[in-house]
């Protein structure tokens, strides 16, 4: 495996090391697909949570912008232009390392570039994706009313295309586990637990 020196941990002797003490699960999904349900379920199972979206939202605030879908999207793209496709993952690696918990869920992967950074830094890394139909996702976003959500179809579609353009579809396609979130909450939570259990079993061998 090729290592990006700026992304890997340097030990006291200045050598690149990979953390094998933590199980890190990357979570990907289109807006409104149900990532928050995966996060909730993982937290109930005792996982620590690191949200990649928090990095972008904080950067949006730092730049003095309101948290609208358009502003958050522009800052996300701007960060990648300024610091490269790995920037959000780079900023999350120290946050993961700081967790005392041996199991960490990283919410919000958007590209395989980001997945590679986590693979380079954490030996036990797997991907889980959650999927729901566009109509269901749109209704969820319209109902949840978070500051960077929208109830306008055009803005929703533009956001979808922006996510796809930076590689989110590739991450979903390469996921080790896929959860379909078109059913009841309890049914989907059971499927999420099964997926996480399979990932844990894989790395416990």
The domain count comes to: 1
Q: Going by CATH, what is the homologous superfamily? A: P-loop containing nucleotide triphosphate hydrolases
Percentage of helical residues? 40-55%
Average pLDDT confidence is 88
Number of strands: 7
Number of helices: 9
Question: Given this structure, which CATH class is correct?
Answer: Alpha Beta
Overall structural class, as computed from helix and strand content, comes to: alpha/beta
Distance between the termini: 21 Å
Order of helices and strands: EEEHEHHHEHEHHHEH
Taking strands numbered 1, 2, ... along the chain, how are they ordered across the largest sheet? 4-5-3-6-7
Sheet-strand content, in percent, reads 15-25%
- CATH topology title: Rossmann fold
Rounded to an integer in angstroms, the radius of gyration calculated over CA atoms is 17 Å
Unreliable spans are 1-15
For the record, the CATH architecture stands as 3-Layer(aba) Sandwich
Main sheet, how many strands, which sense, barrel? 5 strands, parallel
Task: Name the overall outline.
Answer: globular
Protein model, in words:
- The protein has helices at 35-44, 52-62, 69-83, 87-97, 112-121, 134-144, 153-165, 168-173, 185-204; strands at residues 9-10, 16-17, 19-28, 48-51, 103-107, 122-131, 177-180.
- Strand 1 (9-10) and strand 2 (16-17) form a beta hairpin.
- Helix 1 packs across helix 9 (185-204), helix 2 (52-62) packs across helix 3 and helix 4 packs parallel to helix 5 (112-121).
- The radius of gyration is 17 Å and the shape is globular.
- The chain has nine helices and seven strands.
- By secondary structure, it is an alpha/beta fold.
- The strands form two sheets. The chain has a five-stranded parallel sheet, with helices on both faces. A two-stranded antiparallel ribbon has the order 1-2.
């Amino acid at each position: 495996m090729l290592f990006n020196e700026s992304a890997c941990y340097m030990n006291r002797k200045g050598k690149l090391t990979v953390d094998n003490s933590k199980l890190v699960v990357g979570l990907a999904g289109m807006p409104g697909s149900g990532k928050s349900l995966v996060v909730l379920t993982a937290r109930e199972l005792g996982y620590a949570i690191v949200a990649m979206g928090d990095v972008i939202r904080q950067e949006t605030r730092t730049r003095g912008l309101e948290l609208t879908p358009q502003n958050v999207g522009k800052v996300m793209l701007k960060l990648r232009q300024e610091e490269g496709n790995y920037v959000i993952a780079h900023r999350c690696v120290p946050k993961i390392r700081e967790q005392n918990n041996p199991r960490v869920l990283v919410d919000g992967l958007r590209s395989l570039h980001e997945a590679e950074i986590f693979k380079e830094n954490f030996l036990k890394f797997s991907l889980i994706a959650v999927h729901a139909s566009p109509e269901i996702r749109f209704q969820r976003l319209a109902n949840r009313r978070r500051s960077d959500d929208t109830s306008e179809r055009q803005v929703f579609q533009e956001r979808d295309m922006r996510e796809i353009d930076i590689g989110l579809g590739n991450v979903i396609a390469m996921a080790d586990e896929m959860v379909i979130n078109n059913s009841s909450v309890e049914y989907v939570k059971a499927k999420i637990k099964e997926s996480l259990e399979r990932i844990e079993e894989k790395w416990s061998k």
